[in-house]
Sequence to fold (370 residues):
Amino acid sequence: MKENPKILIVDDQQQNIELLEAHLIPQGYKTITASNGEEALDKLVEHDIDIVLLDVMMPGLNGFEVTRLIRQDERFRRLPIILVTVLWETEDRVKGIEAGCDDFITKPFDKTELLARVRSLLKVKAFNDLSKNFTNQLESEVSIMTEDYKRSIKKIKSESLETIHRLSLVSDYKDKSERAHINRMSLYSAAIARQMGFKEDSVETLLYAACMHDLGKVAMPDSILQKPSKLDPDEWEIMKQHTIIGAKILKGSDSEYIKMGEVIALHHHEKWNGTGYPHGLKGIEIPAECRIAAIADVFDVLLSKRPYKEAYTLERAFSIIKEERGKHFDPEVVDSFFAIKDKILKIRKQYQSEKKPKFSISLSFFDEDD
Ligand SMILES: [Fe+2]
Fold:
């Protein structure tokens, strides 16, 4: 309980106020006074009041009305109010309780009764304050812990994604492709998925999963990956294995990114007409993310210099993608690809000029467009 609790005395009769003060001040209470309801409401806001002694019969707002107005203010919902009047009919008491008062005192005051009631309500107030402070503190601590937890999760996620991305770069180095192939290919995939109406979290999963499409190339012999001419049938059979090996490396993970990465690694060379590998899946048998990754991968490879080929012009690459609509590629994915041609070119421009590959990519790349 506070050392010198503050009591607001509201009465239109100055002698009543003085009488109450004469009882209360010697007990160590501080008093604030008001001669009407409006003034009382102002004083409540100005001072940190602990209890209100409120006369019922006053000109202007009466005690019941003032009680009601105090209770309407969230800050004073639990502030102890004692109504003071000369006579109490049962009806008046009911009215007081309904208005929200906590106790009643009858004039003329009995000093002992007055002090006992004030003390008792101050104890209730002290308990309420303590409970309120505890709740506030608890809420604040929970909120801090929740923020810390969110920050930690975000950090772990970003570190995991960076690890996935860095490991995926192995395939770029391994087949000596133009640097940043996986960055461009992943961003193309995410852009197409977004255009096709994928949910934002699936777009993000695809962005990082697509990075892993050629992970299986780590197991491919350099003599095949870097062969400056067309592969013979035996070499081609070995090359096809990069899909199965990639999927094996990624198999059995609980991570959504790695699970999707496994599917993309396995099926990114399937073709819409069923002539792809490793399983010859056809049409919508091929998972949607793989149909998207296929076009993103091929488009970038067409534009890149590889040991076995020069880089094609943009015009030629676009025309091949168009020709392969309904053959190699899902027609809907091709249409979405061309619908965001400007965005595709923007990704290419930004990631083509990189001397060193970026070790992280994010959907924020698209933010300025949206
Ligand atoms: Fe591949």
The mean pLDDT is 90. The longest helix spans residues 111-174.
